[in-house]
Structure formats: C-alpha cells, structure tokens
Input
Amino acid sequence: MVPRLLALAAPCLLAGALAARPAPDLPLSPQVTRGVAYATADGETLKLDVAAPARGGPYPGVLLLHGGAWVMGGRGDLAGFLPAIAEKGYVVASASYRLAPKHPFPAQLDDARAAVRFLRANAKTYNIDPDKVAVGGFSAGGHLALLLALNPPPTDAGPSSAVTCAVSYFGPTDLSLYAKSPGVEDAYMVPFLGKACKTDPDVYKKASPISFASKAAPPVLMIHGTADFVVPVIHSERLLAKLRTAGATAELLTVPGAGHGWGGKDAERAMATAVRFLDTHLKGAR
Output
C-alpha cells in the first residue's frame, strides 16, 4: 500500500523536524529505556522503548506505533518522538510489532493491544496513570492506532487494552478502497490480510477502523496531508464524518499540499495540535 522507502521516510521526516530543535532544559527532561520486552508471540520477543519524565507523576501514557505498510519498520523509526512528547509530561512508549506477510492480520492488532496491557500492568514501574493511556501512530501505525481505539477490546482477564483517546497521522481507515487498484491490493493488502477483497471482504471489514465507528468511540484526532496519494485524505474525512454522525468526538487537521509525511513548520504545527489534543483528553486541559 505504501511505497517501501516512503513508508519509512514519512515518520522520519516528522521526527527529524522535531529532533532539529534543541530540547529545552526542563524539569521533565525524560529518561529513555530501550529494548523492553513486552510480549512473546510465535516465538518472537516483542520489544518497546520507553521515555518518561525523570521525576514527578504519575503521568498519562502514550503508545506509539510505527509505519511501514505492516511489512517493515520498527520502534526505532519513532525515536525522535519519545523525548519530544515525554518532556510535555507523558510516559511515551514506541512498540515494535509482528510484520506481514510472515504474520498476517490480526497479529499486528494483537501486539498493539498487548503493548497497552503491558503499560497498564507495569504502571508503577514506569510511573504511568493506568486510567489515562492513549495510542498514536503513523501510516500503517495510524491505522493500527485507530483500529485498537475503535474496535472494542477483548474481555480477557487482566489489564484492559482500551485507550482514552487516539491520534492518527495519515492512517488508512477503509482498506476496501484499495480493492479498486488491483496492483496496490496485490502488493500490500494481500500480504497484510492474506486475501483479496473479492475473495474475503469480511477480513477487509474487520481490519478497517471505519467499520467500528460508534458513539462509544474514544476521542480521535486525525492529521492528514491533502496531497497524500499513498493514503488519500478521504480516508480520514470519511471516518471523521462517520464518527461525528454517530455522536463521537473526532477532529481532523489537514495539512494543505502535504503528501505522505512532511517536515518543517507543518510538522511542528501538527505536533503542537497532537499535544494539545492529548492534554485535553488525558490531562483535562482546555
């Protein structure tokens, strides 16, 4: 679905714009712990990196999910975001997850849920408020963030994988739209979902966040470039309309003329909007 180099470059452009700005010497200057094992699945040890303010708290938690068309990438792609968000008063984790085609859907959603449960189960260790956990992601990671937020979590025993709110940077919301482009579907949807839409439309529905839009949805912020030809902005526009029609809280920040990832002032404005959204729904700030 996403050109392979671009799939990695999009979050890196945004992270680079943040990393280029010197971090202020704040009391909340974060400490970063890398390579924390959060689950084991299919013989693979899944890991995350965590950035947390050095003192104070407990703080709201934020789980970040990387892009890469569900077939590539890793938690290190979002390294620049961890301290940038943590210094605002959050405990931020970036998680790797199992990749397709070796591990088709729903492995990626299962791993994202496991990461949320891990953060809640270890809330005291990482100084997290377990009642205030958000999820965010980029491209394929934005898709997973929305799917995790909107699809009701399993009622298993133990910590919940439900989230308080979600942020998606240019994540696809209706995977059936790619069935209109057979070459794209064969290259990206089939490795991820295992089948073409005409063969198994149900799996496309189950993997599409828009299928789960309801009044019960947590608040959602979507950020999308208007010139994105990889994940067209219609994905976010349609989900926005469906969530609002259902009575849920949803916002969309469009970046005029931007494609699948951007830097500079647009990246700074997008991040400021995302932090304000998190502050509103996790800290009660208005």
About this structure: The chain has one domain: 4-171+209-283. The chain is about 35% helix and 20% strand.
